[in-house]
Amino acid sequence: MGWTKEQTDAINARGRSIIVSAAAGSGKTSVLVERLIRQLSDRENKIPADRMIVVTFTKDAAAEMKQRLTAALAELIEKEPENHWLNQQQLLLQSAKISTIHSFCFELIRDNIQELELSGSFRIMDETETQLIVSKAISDLVTEYYQKDIQKTEKLYEQFCYKDDNTIEDLISDIYQFISAIPYGQRWLEHVKDSYSPDGSLYDDFCSKYMQSILGQLKKAEAFSAECVGLIGDTGLDKCIDILDNEYFTITRYIEMFSSDKYSLREKAEMYNAPEFARLVMGKNADPDIKERIKILRDEYKSILKDEITAGMDLVEYSEEDFATHFEVLSILIEMISKLESNLWKIKVDKSCISFNDAEALTVKLLSSIDQDGNIVKSSLAHGLSEYYKIIMIDEFQDTNNNQDLIFKLLSHGGDATKSGDNMFVVGDVKQSIYRFRLANPKNFINTMNASVQYNGDDTPENSYIKLNKNFRSSESVISFVNFIFRSIMSREVGEIVYNSEEELVKGADFTQRDRNTEVALIVQDDNEKNSCSAKYTAKKIYDMLRNKAQVDNKDGISTRDCVKRDFCILLRRKSDADEYIQELAKCGICAYSEETAGYLKSREISVLINLLRITDNPLIDTSFAAVMLSPMFMFTDDEFAELRLINRSGHIYDAVCTGIESIEGQEPILSGDILLKTRNVYNTISELRMQSATLDLVGLIRKIYDRTDFISVIQIYSDCDKKRANLRVLLEYAKMYQESSNEGLSGFLRYIDKMVKVNGDFRQGQTVSTSEDVVMIKTIHKSKGLEFPFVFLCQTHSLFNVADSRKNIQLNFESGIGFRLQNRREFQRYPTLPFNVINKMNMSDSLSEELRLLYVALTRAKEKLFITLKIGKSQKNKLAEYAVGIHQYSGITPRLACEAKSMSDWLLMALITHKDAKKLRELSEYDMFYTQSDNFNIKFESIEAESLSEENTISEDKNNCIEKAAVNNELVSEITEKFDFKYDYSLSILQAKVSVSEISKSDSRSDIVLKRPSFMQEGGRLTGSEKGTVIHSILQHADFQRLYSDTSAEIDNIVRHGFITEHQKYAADINLIKRFIGSELFKRALRSGNIIRERKFLMRISDIEITDEEFAKYNNTNGMIQGIIDMYFQEDDGLVLVDYKTDNVSDLSILAEKYSLQLAIYRSALRRIEEKKVKETVIYSLKLGKMINVEL
User: Fold this and answer.
1) Among residues 387, 423, 506, 676, which is most buried (max CB within 10 A)?
2) Within 10 A of 375 (CB to CB), how many other CB atoms are there?
3) SS (H, E, C) 556-611
4) Rounded to an integer, what distance in angstroms lies between the CA atom of residue 851 and that of residue 848?
5) What percent of the chain clears pLDDT 70, i.e. is strictly above it?
6) Backbone torsions φ then ψ of 619, nearest 5 degrees
7) Reported pTM
8) Shortest CA distance to 566 belongs to which of 773, 740, 727, 389?
9) What DSSP character marks residue 463?
């Protein structure tokens, strides 16, 4: 492979730490592997493979890294088989630390377990279990404080609560989760609290930041006011110009006042008086568009001056009082959180388990300590490890949190808590940092870059950075579009990085010549229209591309192939939008898949299973009992359930079930007919499960439910049966995980589920589609990170950014601390404090930057071509006009304008309106002055009216749209009337969804029912005739026919040794029956055939069985399944011979032929369909008579 200069530098740089800023598609994984291979194979500067740490973001990435290193070493060894160093490295590689950060931490903890209170056999809790334990501990803590320290809890209640104390628990939970990603979080909390003390420094800092916020708002108002003045000047409306000029002057005067250093913020607040605004009358002759625009702009700056700035001044007025309250509240909360951590640690030690966050905190504890000056210093263990490990390589460094960043610094050679050592190699891209919700801190990457110098190939030991910007994934059209969007929008204020020539993507891959221009669909629809037409457009576009065989480049960049469904990916901001796209694609006959991670416990099939487990544990839970009876598992109708409930209106449903099927003193039960059969089935099922639950573990009980009810087959009636089956199977895995960590059985598992639901926890849904299947993938942007697809559709871009955190009662920030929204109890009003507002603005800015980085991730997934859908309603048209004015005024998109975005669509509209090809977009804005950029690449814009995407027109070219008014068809009317008058035959409702051949045969009046005796009655006593027959069947099933023929007794002994039959059964059975069978001509024919199949199981649709039999006819029109086991069949030249052994004690073979004719007919039909061959003979062999009979069917 040919490496670029920057890649070569990254591979070969030595003697210092290197940070690589690797843009999307820049081949960073290949660079990582190549660098490691060269270091591991270097015989001059030998570094043993077990003396490196390689940290990846996921387990899959770690496994892939190890696999690639192993393969590369094997290739080198093949070239140099005598190279002992390479052979040694290959052995050491198996014990190398190549893992996720958490796997590394867990291993380090186990290696140093003597330093901690844990046992070496500790287990790892998943996120849901951790959440449950923390939630319970917080609830217990608050209760404890109510009992022991009511004054403190009353203080918190007064400041934060209204109806209940849930807010207190939420506050504790938010703070606890936040400090879990901070080294020595309790110390950080104490520092924040002290900053709010009268002697603290935080007040001046917040006032300064808030002043900047106010100035920002005033400058925004100034820009709106200036535009109004400009608009009036163009129209010559002299009556209005004085009013608007005066308002503009007032705003500029406020800007001067708040910019001045003469007054404190409090003094400025006292000086500020919201201005009075005169009525503005522009007259009837004024241009209506200009009037409307001035009204909108004026309302904006009036709102800023009268509402936002005035409210801000009130916060300043009460800020000192609020700071004192912050200090008091934080003192209480810190004490409670300290107690919470202590309580949780005791619980975890008792349970011998830790969470992922615990792993990081314990690793920090092992590697560092706090000295007398309050500084974090390396421990002796950290010193030893930093000398031992020669390579520390970190992938996806932009997604590390503060704990992880400290761990890497402490492990590095010569590093400490403030800086990295000289043996680190970290790779990442701050433009792809999208895990802020997991407390990832992209500033770790930015700070490391800022602390490094650009690599120039010299021998300086100073830590250096290298930028990999050449993109080997995407076509030139995709790259040009990405660069255009982010050069226009991304800045330090929005995105935390300037997207300049150093950050731009550079084309690195060769593609065949073809139109790959990005397509932007402008879908014009009403703002209040709920369903987006984007799904219809996207489905039709994919359908057309598949039908027209759009070309995709092969890896060689020279040849092409036809596109397939898996070449397409639809990216969405929210996973809840996926269903609409799946449905629209299905209408076009296109399979699509969207991974669902939530909604598992609420899914229909799991809800039924959980309810069945509940009534197994306690049958007196009426809601669960009703849910199970009315489910597809037992299929009670509403009328049947009502009839059952009327038996005992006031009692439990279980009592009604017992009463309804009971026969008292020889009288018939209260219930009769089909409902009696169904109710007995329910009673027998629940009784059996309750008995089994006493001896089976949780996994065994759930398996028993599946076997007893055949529920996995029953749910085949649903269109999404594959997903439901996957969910039912994965429930066994979750049950296994639970019982490995708890011994509380079924009741404990149900309590665990209840707690999980209470805290909005959930399990991941079962996987039904592999990545290799040919389906259109629908993913959230977060889930698409690290993936690539030839064609990417970015849809639902108008989805609003999530601002739920700003509505909380607390704001937390690594740098600025904690701010609360407090409560005025006298007025029953909550209000944001100055610290809350300042920190909230910082957090909103960070969140906005992450949304922009998320857009970058989305657009860089495409290899060949991008498709973007933009909803254009009235609100978007107004925004377009506003953007056009602002961009024209400043000759580009200012950071302040970019900060106004409420969705990805806003950013895209801002940037695209400046493109030379955006004529249609500019027309929609209804504005006549524009700023356009000079980029020399093309974008295809398409304006689409929502009405044109109606369902009938989705694939209009394939349909005949000529619809004529039809005359009345009396024959059709008669047919419809007949269908509506049809009375449903409920006789089939009692038939099971899956039946066995033996059950059908037993229902035949020609056959008898034989019940099996319990196994304890067989031990040591005489076997019944049927039990002896079972032994004979077992021998014929498991015996090697060749050995059975040559030495019958020895082979039967062998079967006993393998446990297929017992010693007692061997002596009780008549072995002469087997000897007679092996001497028969039928047995010899089977041996000669050389192709004997025994105990052939099958499961197929009843409708696939092609036989004519009165007893079987009632099953013909059902969608049920039939299962059975064929004793034996063998292949001869002219067809198959089907053999069924019988041990019935009869005197005439014709009795067997008549009795089992239906069973044999089913076997024959099934075998013919399975093997797709002719069944020439159907034989019953009577072991009692030692004879066979051909059954004519």
Assistant:
1) 423
2) 12
3) CCCCEEECCHHHEEEEECCHHHHHHHHHHHHHCCCCEEECCCCCCCCCHHHHHHHH
4) 5
5) 92
6) -70, 0
7) 0.74
8) 773
9) -
Between CA 615 and CA 750 the distance in angstroms is: 11
pLDDT per residue as tens digits for the range 956-987: 444 444 334 556 788 888 888 887 776 655 44
Distance CA 141, CA 239 (A): 67
Q: Residue 241: pLDDT above 70?
A: yes
- Cα–Cα distance, 286 to 452 (Å, whole number): 60
Q: Which residues pair with 1140 in a beta bridge?
A: 1180
DSSP-H helix ranges across 116-184: 127-148, 150-160, 166-179
Phi/psi of residue 651, each to 5°? -90, -170
Whole-number pLDDT of residue 959? 42
**CA gap 661, 684 in Å, rounded:** 11
Separation CA 480–CA 70 (nearest Å): 38
The token pair that represents 488 in the structure block? 């226009």
DSSP string, 71-95: HHHHHHHHH-TT-HHHHHHHHHHTT
Strands (E), 1-84: 18-22, 52-56
- Cα–Cα distances in Å, from 466 out to 19, 28, 481, 1079? 6, 12, 24, 83
List, as one string, the DSSP characters of 690-735: HHHTTTS-HHHHHHHHHHHH-HHHHGGGSTTHHHHHHHHHHHHHHH
Residue 881 has pLDDT above 80, yes or no: yes
- List Cα–Cα distances, 1037 to 64, 725, 990, 1089, 1126, in angstroms: 45, 31, 34, 18, 11
To which residue do tokens 């460094």 refer? 397
CB of 433 within 8 A of CB of 399?
yes
1028-1034-1035 Cα angle (round to 5): 95
Helix axes 834-859, 202-235, angle to 10 degrees: 70
**Residues 1023 and 1031: beta-carbon distance below 8 Å:** yes
H/E stretch holding 124 reads: strand 123-124
Mean residue pLDDT of the chain comes to 87
